[in-house]
Amino acid sequence: MASVRALSRPTRGLPLSQISRQTSASVRRWASSQAAEAPLEDLEDSALGAPPLSEEEKKTFRPWKRQADRKFALPSGRYNYHAPKYDRGPLHPVQPLPSSEPTARDFVPGPFNLPRLRQTYLSTVASDIMTLTYSHIPPGTPKKEAPQRLREWDDSSPYHKNRSLRAPRGAPVLPLIERDINFTNIPEIKEITLAAYVPAALQDMDNLLVARAALLAITGVLPEMTKTKTNVQQWKIRAGEFAGCKVTMRGNEAYEFLDRCVNLVFPKIKDWRGIKASTGDSSGNLAWGFTPEELKLFPEMEVNMGMYPPKMVPGCRVYVKTTATSDRQARLLLQSMGLPFYGEVKN
């Protein structure tokens, strides 16, 4: 091998068969015992000791031609995998790479854990929701005309001409149009927000400190403080002062929090009937609340209740934001995850 390294660079670029014919007189070592008998300088020889190219060799040396003459060159990018640009749902036959893959378009380090509730959603709940909401429409069935959501002008004034339609009465914000569930828009949890209003913090800021510590222990995310927006003189509330805190969880943190609520907190509440079915904002976002006594049932607070003064632990409001387009679809999603609902359904 050392004798091959000692050859000139153009010679080393030739095939091995031609080199063997030109250097037939060179010594070949076929056994390790013979290699051990060779001097140390010969074994440690490297390409750095090769003689430089002469002027004639430089003129005839064409590395690009040697690369072009190779018969076994691989295609440049024909067999490389390219992740799809758009994610068309968890049940589409062509799936993008997970965000944990370094070659993915939306690479994010992690996930470092997989919550049990999220794993159940991906393996069971998503396909079950699509099956439960499937509505068979035979081919050739005429489509139903959607009712008009906006009101027209009565043309009582010349200024009504070419104006945009008006919103319906009593609805300053139009709710989302409910879409049929298919493999591209299966509802899932987007984020969960916990908000605690502490009016006693206007007199003693220690109450706000306890509220932030409680939400931090429950969620694992540092809460941010909120300010009052209006003045209420009889309650001694002034606008612009800190009187609460909130925290938002997304991804695995949201699923872990919901899992603790379903399996650890709700079963401990005495005579708990469930969540009111009338909750919701008509756009797929639901909410419920925890009293101070119910907030203490979280295992993160039970393990160290001496840290929180009993009369300073606040209640909080839980807002669950989903990708559903109606409260009906959001209730179906949360019911499949173990949350019961009771009472009259609003919509």
UniProtKB/TrEMBL annotation:
The keyword Mitochondrion does not apply. It holds the Pfam family Ribosomal_L5. SUPFAM superfamilies: RL5-like (SSF55282). Residues 183-238 form the Large ribosomal subunit protein uL5 N-terminal domain. It comes from the Eukaryota. GO terms for biological process: translation. Transmembrane segments: none annotated. Residues 55-66, 142-158 have a biased composition (Basic and acidic residues). Residues 17-35 have a biased composition (Polar residues). Residues 1-66, 137-165 are annotated as: Disordered. Keywords: Ribonucleoprotein, Ribosomal protein. The keyword Lyase does not apply. GO terms for molecular function: structural constituent of ribosome. Residues 244-341 form the Large ribosomal subunit protein uL5 C-terminal domain. InterPro entries: Ribosomal_uL5, Ribosomal_uL5_C, Ribosomal_uL5_dom_sf, Ribosomal_uL5_N. One of its GO terms (cellular component) is ribonucleoprotein complex. Belongs to the universal ribosomal protein uL5 family. This is Large ribosomal subunit protein uL5m. The lineage of its organism: Eukaryota, Fungi, Dikarya, Ascomycota, Pezizomycotina.
